[in-house]
Amino acid sequence: MRALRIDPDTTVTVLTLPQTDALCLIRVHVGSPDAVDQGVYHHRAVLHLHGSGRTLGLPQNLVGWALASAWRGVALYPLAGTIVVTGRTADGEVTSLDDDLAEHVQAVAVTVRETLAQWRRRPPPSDEAAIAELLAYAARDVASSR
User: Fold this and answer.
1) I need a labelling partner for 144 at 20 to 30 A (CA). Which of 20, 67, 112, 122 fits?
2) Region 68-72 average pLDDT
3) Of the candidates 37, 83, 28, 85, the residue with the CA atom closest to the CA atom of residue 60
């Protein structure tokens, strides 16, 4: 089963998980022995994240946040720590991530990396402007790779 791991440093790694023990291995990748939250921000995908990531002070995951926000069409709450993205069946079961959704993840990751590099040279005027800019870019990436 194909999944993608998104690290807070914007790295995206392709994972091949066995269908039978996928959730157990997702816990390992997310770094949580017990608490893994599952967020459904797209009807064909699940974002698996550390259940206590924000409380523990794990680093913010801008790629995961931008992706989830673009899929939902609104700026969401911050997401923290490593995130694993899998597919989702109509019955809500975890399955392999579809190619078009994997393209969304990769495109948003590239955009976040490029935007952060630009901000180091030319910082945005405010946090609100940064959020709006990044969300607009991610929404463009998701719409253009449909």
Assistant:
1) 122
2) 97
3) 83
Phi/psi of residue 11, each to 5°?
Answer: -70, 135
Taking the C-alpha atoms of residue 83 and residue 62, their distance in angstroms, rounded to an integer, is: 11
- As a whole number, mean pLDDT of residues 1-8 equals 97
- Between CA 72 and CA 66 the distance in angstroms is 10
Distance CA 86, CA 93 (A): 10
Question: Please, where are the H alpha helices in 6-86?
Answer: 22-30, 53-56, 62-72
Residue 52: phi and psi, rounded to 5, are: -120, 20
| pTM of model > 0.90 | yes
What is the predicted pLDDT for the residue at 144?
A: 75
Q: Cβ distance 12 to 63 under 8 Å? A: yes
Q: What are the Cα distances from residue 54, in Å, to 37, 59, 77, 82, 124?
A: 12, 8, 10, 11, 24
17-34 pLDDT tens trace: 998 889 999 999 999 887
- Each domain of the chain, given as residue ranges in start order, spans 2-144
